Hints:
The structure is a single chain. By secondary structure, the chain is mainly alpha-helical. It has 2 domains: 28-76, Homeodomain-like (Arc Repressor Mutant, subunit A); 86-219, Tetracycline Repressor, domain 2 (Orthogonal Bundle), CATH 1.10.357. Helices cover 62% and strands 0% of the residues. The protein is built from 10 helices and no strands. It has helices at residues 24-51, 58-65, 69-72, 79-99, 107-124, 126-135, 146-149, 151-165, 174-194, 210-219. The termini are far apart.
Amino acid sequence: MAGAEQPPARPAPAGTGPDHQADPREERRQRRHEKTRREILRAAREVLLEAGTDGLTLRDVAQRADFSPAALYKYFSGRDEIIAALTMESFEILAGFIDAVPLRQRPDRRLVSLGLAYLKFAEENPADLRCILDATMRPLPASVDLSTGLRAVEALHETLLEGVGKGIFRDLSESDLAGVAYGLWALVHGMTTLRGADLGTVRRVVRPDARRALTIYVDGLRRPPS
């Protein structure tokens, strides 16, 4: 009814008003918690690089991080959560290298750049490479977001499709595309494995030139001139 007296406004719950500020003590606690989690994961990554996923134990991680095994449970529910967190971090680091490859590049040149980006990731992040390779050998914890892990494969597939669509690559069936992607992946992993090998005895017939090897592979996909 017009002119009727309005009831007094109900006060907002404490801590939800526009002038509310977060408790600085809680923020400090959260920062300390996240810092400790990162330190534990750093130690776990070192253990993983030495022993692999199968050899990663809470006791070894705790010892490397200078914690008691019981104290780890304040930050992780168990071994599976540590492995899941390591895997997600590794996927995110790899995705960063892949996403840094410019989309404006022609598909043939972009394929070479994607291969080189993976090689650079592997060289600079050996523990993360080990984590990803180990992850392909067993079921992943449910908390792992596979969409991040598949970013490299998706970029490879999208680039191949674009190259076919633009007439740069020859016509390829879905089965052919899958085989080409596997071949490129195998080539990059092979070069990753050989990076630390002594090739002195075969230097006359083997040249460790990753860019050239990738370029030759990609050249084999080109549409023949009409």
